[in-house]
Amino acid sequence: MVGLNKIIVIGNLGTDPEMRYTANGNAVTSFNLATSRSYTAADGERKQETEWFRVVSWNQLAEHVNQYLSKGRRAYVEGRLHSDRWEGQDGQTRFTNEIIANTVLFLDRATDSPINEGSSEQVSDSDGNDGQIDANDLPF
Question: What is the pTM of this model?
Answer without folding.
Answer: 0.73
